[in-house]
UniProtKB/TrEMBL annotation:
<protein>
    <submittedName>
        <fullName>30S ribosomal protein S14</fullName>
    </submittedName>
</protein>
<dbReference type="GO" id="GO:0005840">
    <property type="term" value="C:ribosome"/>
</dbReference>
<feature type="signal peptide">
    <location>
        <begin position="1"/>
        <end position="19"/>
    </location>
</feature>
<keyword id="KW-0687">Ribonucleoprotein</keyword>
<keyword id="KW-0689">Ribosomal protein</keyword>
<keyword id="KW-0732">Signal</keyword>
């Protein structure tokens, strides 16, 4: 269990390095908040999956505390995907008694086949699919709960949870 949580924490930290401090050059792989937010908006406009339980994407992604913050290309897209993942996990974690969680788990599993997941989500050991989704399919949502607690702060803040 500790090893699994450490893996999830590591994956979360790898994804979290997308926002970085101002550098001397603005390479093609770094974006301003405005550029990254446009990437986020473009992603939400054509998002491949529906949000759960009437959730709506926020009009803008969260902004870093520094105006000089640069973002890695793909950060805005990742914010949209993480918001959707968190919306879906919230539905699963709060509806595990009515059977709708199995349909939501099937939806959640589809994210692992997206170009975004394959490009930006570093999960060589398939922890997300095997530990988060797989165990939840068997009725154990404890690892999903840990993931939700550590990686879904923005989603919870936006939705007053």
């Amino acid at each position: 269990m500790k090893k699994t949580f450490a893996m999830l924490l590591t994956v979360g930290m790898m994804l979290g390095v997308g926002a970085c401090g101002q550098s001397a050059t603005n390479s093609a792989d770094t974006l301003t908040w405005e550029q990254s937010n446009q990437e986020y908006k473009k992603t939400t406009e054509n998002f491949p999956f529906a949000l759960s339980d009437g959730d709506q994407f926020p009009s803008d992604m969260t902004k870093a505390t520094s105006d000089n913050q640069l973002y890695q290309k793909g950060w805005g897209e990742g914010q949209a995907y993480f918001y959707w993942i968190c919306s879906t996990e919230n539905k699963i974690l709060n509806n595990s008694d009515d059977g709708s969680d199995q349909q939501s788990l099937s939806e959640l599993e589809k994210v692992t086949d997206t170009d975004w997941f394959k490009t930006y989500y570093i999960d060589e050991d398939n922890v997300f699919k095997n530990e988060v989704i797989g165990k939840a399919q068997l009725g154990d949502t404890s690892i999903m709960q840990q993931f939700y607690d550590s990686d879904c702060t923005w989603y919870r803040d936006v939705n007053g949870l």
